[in-house]
Amino acid sequence: MGVLRQLRLRAERQAKLLRCLRKSASLRTVQNRTDLIRPRDALVFTTLRNEMVRLPFFLDYYRAQGVRQFLIVDNGSTDGSAEYLAQQRDVSLWSTTASYKAAGYGVDWLNHLLWLYGAGHWVLVVDVDEFFVYPFCDTRPLQALTDWLEAQGRRSFGAMLLDMYPKGPVTAQPYTSGQNPFEIARWFDAGNYTIQRNPDYHNLWIQGGVRQRVVMAHDPGKAPALNKIPLVFWNRKYAYKSSTHMILPRGLNRVYDQGGGELASGVLLHAKFLDTIVAKAQEELQRGQHYASSREYRAYEDTLARNQDLWCEWSTEYINWRQLEILGLMSKGDWA
Amino acid sequence: MSAPTAPLGIVILCHTALRRAAQVARFWLQAGCPVVLHIDRAVPEAELQALREDLGAHPLLRFSPRHRCDWGSWQLVVATQEASALLLKEFPSVGHVLLSSGSCLPLRPAADLLAHLESHPQTDFIESVSIDHADWITGGLSEERFTLYFPFNWRRQRWLFDRFVDLQRKLSLRRRIPAPLRPHMGSQWWCMTRATLDAILTDPNRARYERYFRQNWIPDESYFQTLARLHGREIESRSLTLVKFDRHGRPNLFYDDHLQLLRRSDCFLARKIWPEAERLYSFFLTDQAKALDPITPEPAKIDRYFALAEKQRIEGRAGLYMQSRFPGADSATTKTAAPYSVFTGFEHVFQNFDYWLGQVTGARVHGHLFAPEAVQFHGGARVWHGAISSSAAIRDYNPRMFLTNLLWATRPERLCFLHGPGDTMDGALSWFMATDTNAQISVIRGAWLLALQDAAGTDAEKIARAGQLHRQEQDWIESLTSRHTLARVRIWTLADVMQDPGARLSEIAREIAGEAALAAHAVPPLRASDGFAAFLGRMRNQGLPAQVLKECQF
């Protein structure tokens, strides 16, 4: 790699960090409990808006994996999310009413909090509808994974987004707060993912799944990216570039083997397709705060308004991580 | 004192997770085994105090002088020597000394080990392999450990370490191994008799040997292993402690879910245990293990378990492309998950070719997977295994991965499909199949003319179409006949096939399903080709180049 290119990438990363510092000016501290963070704690970072119904299950899911503190940015919720979060003893909360879009879809805020509190910790950066599944997650806490990654000299861990959906119209089975969303959204597409390697940032670009098969079938190239690197041993020099799809420095994006072997990887189960998406799609369309003029939400509205079933006869019903491993969606690598 | 002092003393070297070390120490103390703890110098005083309070005063417990023991350092040997000497001096009834670490966990009741040692009173259990045969060593040097100088720390000063090794190799620098030692090495976790250990510790040449071993690389894997050969009477060259190393020579950790696996071990202890593996500690350190039915040891099962994991990391699953396995085009790995067969032109020559092929071979025969309008899955399905869509737009977005996904999702089912110049023929895809060892590709050149004859349209339109199809076919055949081709390729002209259609078809069917399959099935009838010669003549006269037609006449 040329020196010039290296310098350009470094400049880009530093500009990103500066931008995050600037964007973070709009963050107002609601509840700062970061003094409770202990040296080896794994931390969850999230940004959200109006997710009250999802929060109880979300927090409990990660608490059960051994996460000790949640650092959350609330982007102007009006449904009581902020009040609820402020009461949780393991949540630090910041709030902003600034533009989600102008903050790089929330990335700038999180990058700044990561810079402040993430360094020296394993951090998990997820949305409220993303549920991390890793090898042996049913028998080993998150710390077992991070200890092992550290011993292997790894600094980042990939987990692709797996869109889950119910059988029948999404509105047919309403989600109630506290419920496991995967009791409803139990199905997924097991083997229709395409991958390209990004020559500039070295991350893989994964597309496919139900969003490509049904929602974006007419324009598959515009199907959303599913590659994610949500788990990182944070350092102040790091910065997420766009959502958690890409991170700088780019060496962290190399969470795959190119010689035929398999690195360990996980999956983020994506509980997007619940009945809650209907109201969300309408709201987000009005706000226009999402990626590419909220093109995705427009497509959802079309698809869901027609009451189209996302399910097909070759949909797979979710069982556990071992099933995802066998299907080749994730890998144990050499973690035995 | 609750129990009489047992004839087994335990040395435990600890540097982290002291809470666990204390738990294990208590296990041995309760069985009446004297314990000497070596606490690494790097451990903060507060933690040491907590440990002392945790264990309390016990007549069988001692602490040996503390050293700072980096991985593979000489200090590890010194700490072991001092702790063993202390144990032998303070507890005269000890007949065997077991060296373990703070992350070792006993797998069987102490009484089992005591009984085992009682029946082998003279035996030293120490893995001790002559360096001439030490090819099991992973991630490191073998003979050179004994003949080079190692002043630099491998973990902290890797660059200097490597350069200094290179330099010594270049200068052919060699240290002499002191007589009469014959270098041996092996697992650092041993259990030796008082006699052997005493002889090692009181050897009149000890100082001379130490000066030599101090310079060795990872002396804790060679000092006792070499000297045991000098002083031991009966050596069983096998450690009582199970350790599974990965390819970098790092020990694999054991977790709660390894419980059943560990129960099948024929060893008495295992390391390393992940300190938070609560279930393992509570199971093996209490009498839960005794309450269950005894289990037949199957150590091979443990080996297989870890070997499989290693294989998955190194080789991966052939034909799988996913987020953490993305082999490049030049990688040596197999490109696809299973063998498959591609047929060009057969459906124009034979009636119901796909149906016949499915019947004869039992394979899954799809139509034209790359047809321009939509994927022709078997039976006209709109979606297939893995939720792969029949949408042409989705398929054409990444045709190569469409194929690899289909093969992965339907493995080990045998896949066959039709593919010809009328399809969307992506150059990269053709090349991919041609260079895939799993592909079997059979082509009847010019068969598309048969289809063209029957197609609707004027002769002028057909000529234009013929030009396109011919070009597509040329490109396809060019990919298949390159010197880089790895697929099993057959290319016949229409005339070749017409001479003996049965022989051609059986050759193909045999390759997929073997001899037996053929017996019950007749060759499918040929499609009517009345007027084909006349059609070709007409085409030629309208301006279709003769070389296009040449191979088609029969």
Secondary structure blueprint with pairings:
The complex is a heterodimer of chains A (336) and B (554).
Chain A: H1 3-23, E1 28-31, E2 43-48, H2 55-65, E3 69-74, H3 81-87, E4 91-95, H4 107-118, E5 122-125, E6 130-133, H5 142-151, E7 156-157, E8 159-163, E9 187-188, E10 193-197, E11 204-208, H6 209-215, E12 231-233, E13 239-242, E14 246-248, E15 266-270, H7 276-287, H8 291-305, E16 316-317, H9 321-327
Helix pairs in contact in A: 1-4, 7-8
Chain B: E1 8-14, H1 18-30, E2 35-39, H2 45-55, E3 61-63, H3 74-90, E4 96-101, E5 105-106, H4 110-118, E6 123-125, E7 129-130, H5 144-147, H6 158-170, E8 184-185, E9 191-193, H7 194-201, H8 206-213, H9 223-231, E10 234-236, E11 241-243, H10 259-263, E12 269-271, H11 278-284, H12 288-291, H13 299-314, E13 340-344, H14 346-349, H15 353-361, E14 364-368, E15 383-384, E16 388-389, H16 392-397, H17 399-410, E17 415-418, H18 427-434, E18 439-445, H19 448-454, H20 459-480, E19 488-493, H21 494-499, H22 501-513, H23 532-542, H24 546-550
Parallel strand pairs in B: 1-2, 1-4, 2-3, 6-10, 11-12, 13-17, 13-18, 14-17, 18-19
Antiparallel strand pairs in B: 4-9, 5-12, 7-8, 15-16
Word description of this protein:
The complex is a heterodimer of chains A (336) and B (554). Chain A has one domain (3-327): Spore Coat Polysaccharide Biosynthesis Protein SpsA, Chain A. In chain A, 30% of the residues lie in helices and 19% in strands. Chain A has 9 helices and 16 strands. Chain A has helices at residues 3-23, 55-65, 81-87, 107-118, 142-151, 209-215, 276-287, 291-305, 321-327; strands spanning 28-31, 43-48, 69-74, 91-95, 122-125, 130-133, 156-157, 159-163, 187-188, 193-197, 204-208, 231-233, 239-242, 246-248, 266-270, 316-317. In chain A, the strands form 5 sheets. In chain A, strands 1-4-3-2-5-12-7 form a 7-stranded mixed beta sheet, sandwiched between helices. A 3-stranded mixed beta sheet of chain A has the order 6-15-8. Chain A is globular. Chain A starts with a helix and ends in a 9-residue tail after the last helix. Chain B has 2 domains: 8-140 and 182-314, Alpha-Beta Complex (Spore Coat Polysaccharide Biosynthesis Protein SpsA, Chain A); 340-550. Helices cover 41% and strands 13% of the residues of chain B. Chain B contains 24 helices and 19 strands. In chain B, the strands form 6 sheets. A 5-stranded mixed beta sheet of chain B has the order 3-2-1-4-9, sandwiched between helices. In chain B, helix 19 packs antiparallel against helix 20 (459-480). The model of chain B has no long low-confidence stretch (mean pLDDT 90). The chains are: A alpha/beta (336), B alpha/beta (554). Chains A and B meet through helix 5, strand 10, strand 11 and helix 6 of A and helix 13, strand 15, strand 16, helix 16 and helix 17 of B.
